[in-house]
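Exercise 7.
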Amino acid sequence: MKLVIDTNILISALIKDSATRKIIFYSPIEFCYPEISLKEIEEKKDIIIEKTGLSEKEYNLLLNEILSFVVLIPYENIDNKIKEANEIFGKIDIDDVIFIALALSTSNDGIWSDDADFERQGKIRVWKTKEVLEFTENSDNA
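Solution. The predicted structure, written as tokens, is:
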């Protein structure tokens, strides 16, 4: 299975040693993320450090560890789908059009996000954390 993940999933994995982090580290799923969206995580770095109590060095190590399980997709591989993605999602949340574009640009099984806005479109399957966790648990038992 291959899923596009949104920024909130990565931030969730950074903030807390939670089910989200465990899924990223231990599941058989391949995750992909638009490289250009790393700037959004960088913009929230200070808030994440404050919430977690991590030092900047610890934050950087954890981010790099999480990203080692994620394929970063260059913008050049996505830009040919931006217009279509904007038509699908631009009126819902312009900031998340990039994730729809990535999903349209690569073979995948959907987007992993707990953002309800993604459910307002019908083109790309949306996986909630609970569903991804269930899939992962069922994969372990197979």
